[in-house]
Amino acid sequence: MVKKLYPLVTVVLLLPLTLTAEVYRTVDEHGNVTYTDSPPADQNKVERVEIQPGPSAESISDTMERNRAIRKAMEEAQEKRLEKSTARKDRVSKAEQEVEEAEKQLAAMEELGDDDRQQLQGGKSYIRPEYFERVKKAQRELDEAKKRLKKIRGY
User: Disordered: where is this region (predicted)?
Assistant: First the structure.
């Protein structure tokens, strides 16, 4: 059995040596450059070209693994950015709704009702202080809602 494997191992070990061919570069009298694997008859303008071996299988495997890891990290980062963007849009939308509600509330509070006037003798009337307090409170709530929206938007 070992005797049968010996020629096979020898061939496998010597195979890479036979696959490495030499490359020659020649320039003719007109300046034309030719590359060939056998040396031409005119040895005057012949130059042997060293060809670097390609990457090893291990190097290719490492590079592919590194590329996979980079691609995965990019996809994860993109997902996080998308999640943050969606969450931010949701927060902005909610803050905008709060501003709209506060504006509606302020408009409703600014309307004078029958209870907001106090009648005096002689037909005169004045607006009760509670009305102004109610409007100020609604205005403060609107201002706070606008500040929250501005903060969320980032300006």
Answer: 75-129
Q: Where are the domains of the chain?
A: 19-52
Phi first, then psi: give them for residue 34, nearest 5 degrees.
-130, 140
Helix (H, G, I), strand (E, B) or coil at 113: coil
Q: Model confidence over 82-121: pLDDT tens digits?
A: 999 999 999 999 999 999 999 999 999 999 888 888 888 8
Question: How far from 121 is each of 7, 57, 117, 118, CA to CA, in Å?
Answer: 128, 104, 13, 10
Half-sphere exposure for 76 (CA within 13 Å, toward CB): 6
Q: What is the pTM (predicted TM-score) of this model?
A: 0.50
pLDDT digits (tens, 9 = 90+) for 9-66: 455 555 554 455 688 888 878 888 888 887 777 766 777 778 777 888 899 999 999 9
107's tokens:
């408009």
